Amino acid sequence: MIGIIGGSGVYEITSKADNVEKKIVTTDYGDVEVSILDIFQKKVAFIPRHASGHSIPPHKINFRANIDALKNVGVTQIIATNSVGSMNLEMPPGSFVIPDDFLDFSENREKTFYEDSVVHIDVTQPYCPKLKDILDKSGDVILGGTYVCTQGPRFETPAEIKMFKMLGGDLVGMTGLPEVTLAREREMCYNSICIVSNYASGISENELTIDEVFEMIQSLEKDLLELIYNFIKNAEDSDCTCHHALDGAEV
Fold first, then answer.
1. Is 241 flagged in the annotation as binding?
2. Of 124, 166, 180, 217, which residue is most buried, by most CB within 10 angstroms?
3. Under 8 Å CB-to-CB from 28, ≥6 apart: which residues?
4. CATH domain 2-244 topology
């Protein structure tokens, strides 16, 4: 089963579904509403990351419950969408970027399922390369880039963006971590479509507003959904190293 975790621009994914079943999935970390969709004769589980009405801010998202809920309904591959600001002029607003690495500056988030045991997962390739190849075939995307995750909910300062650039960051957002590593701990393939909504603070000449972000995401909604639909068409349920992430990781 394919899992989709999305925010603005993805809520309309149900429009091409032949059937929609909403269910409450109970996990050890909380209950999650998951929509089970039939799309192109495939099962797709969809979770709106910010809940109904975009009501949960980034620093309050129950990442562990979301990932565990997808695992519990049988998901093996996850595609997430993340709105981001760009620190790289070669990744302009309107681009879809598939990241291949991250820097985690988020704080006070529950970042592992293994609080009371010793487990060290490998993140040499934190984003699934198989899903990257499928996304590459599915639409106009930029391959590669380092995603910087901040705590939010405020936007970043120009000095912070300058620091992130010096460390090798290309994109900045508030929702990508710990989602990607939690998926690895649950041995699911995971990759992200980073939707570039604006240039980051200090690069953009204008003050940043959430309206600007939503307006750009709305303008890209058709292309984003087409990319996701093509991914669903092209996805294959095959074995992957992500499905064996705990081999050799547990002490």
1. no
2. 180
3. 68
4. Rossmann fold (3.40.50)
